[in-house]
């Protein structure tokens, strides 16, 4: 086919005209060139302290202002919109434009935007800005008009807003439980507790990145659900004990921390006592390609969870209970006969031969402040981040011993309320092959031992629950807040006995329990004024450094004449009631009378095993006194902390330097990494 020259010229003219028309149309639609959040908005959102290299952090249900620059002025009917480009199947926030006002020049605009309180949390790296006609709705124009914001925007909870599940009214509380990055982590015993000066670093970008990395495995359609988010964090922080098939017993393989409850921690790993900075742990986890850092125990998991929840805007405090009952048969344990009870069985030599549950020297977890459907349960709720984590369990429900409250509150009731019983046993037989008598989940078998006497029935729960005092940063006494009364009423007995006691023959008489209306066996028990024999164990020190001898004196008194068998045992243990070795044992059989009480001084030399143990272990001293004629039995126990200073690599706060190199005594000085990461950003793909 042949075209004439005139027809070709006419076609070219028409094409040029169309091109000019299109170009004029393109010029008529302004393009977004850049976006920046205002400092005033960051301050209003309480995110101006977040150390984010590039990008910014905003909270739900609160307006924020963006400075938007365009290549030409907006015309009547045009507005600037903000959106995400995640696709139709992924939940994403709807950033609603409220107002667009002129800025300092004709191509700069102040755009006021807000994400509602039901919008999904997230780290958004796909935000787009574009100009559209108001009458055209929110339909996207062609991609050449879109501006992609090149940095991440983090959307987190807003506990300052009354609509939030995590709303707190008091500004000082919000400063303490949301923004504060440093606090004491309490360990030790009820008699001698101590505090680790811990750097949470919850306003560091590393904390944000790690928290949202963990939430990547949560269904995106649940990223607006506060309950789903806090439970996902609690259940997935770390893992415990790998099996032969490289599968964790609890937790996930890419969790930040591996838990290990043992007497040794093989190199090149670190023992739990090494750590005092969540940011240090996150950095090592990131450098290892998201493989768990080794090793941690309950207080380290709780410190990490404190960081993760605070960085997401959840009011959180770290709590420690001294002499906490672990594995104390909550009602969900179907393999136990009784509930909310720890049983220890000692023979006449003072040796622990069997136990159900454990009394740890301490256990650490977190409380979060949240609204609950049952109004009286709004307030502090327990979140236990040790792998297999539980919660949120209302602290008020724990106090009231309401086993039917949501989210496994029964385990928390056991931890603080459980009754401690100690028995004297005779004629013990070894367990059957494959059974572990020291296993806290073992089912008691009547053939193990014959119970001679119940020698303790302690019902008042844990002696001490501690957290940080608001507004006071100190690892000394003035920084402590005793919250024991929030958790328990010491006059209430949580013990729920079985309807059939496996230790009792069916032919033996039983009595009904007034509290529970079920039958239980009452073993001989001296109560109150009935106990005539008294034993006192006085220690020179309740905390010693490794290599120091333990010294003290045992005093025994009785208002009658008799012979008393006295056994003093010193066991070296881990904080979780795990026996390392018996350090010392001495036995006496001595006469006693009202006029001649016994005074027995003792000196225990340090154990060689101390050099192979963690930086903190415990010496449990037990005195068992049994009179021959009066048939009285008294077991008295004390615990000493044995420790050495761990070789921590994290600098002290007063040794840190701020970004300008000047001395900085504030929280942000400790482990401040923002400048170091400017050219090596924490990329989580």
From TrEMBL:
Keyword Signal carried by entry: yes
Chain ranges of the Transglutaminase-like domain: 290-387
Top-level division of the source organism's lineage: Eukaryota
The entry's keywords: Signal
Database matches in InterPro entries: Ig-like_fold, Ig_E-set, Papain-like_cys_pep_sf, Transglutaminase, Transglutaminase-like, Transglutaminase-like_sf
Signal peptide: 1-23
Gene Ontology molecular-function annotations: protein-glutamine gamma-glutamyltransferase activity
Gene3D superfamilies: Immunoglobulins, Transglutaminase-like
UniProt name for this protein: Transglutaminase-like domain-containing protein
Annotated organism of origin: Sphaeroforma arctica JP610
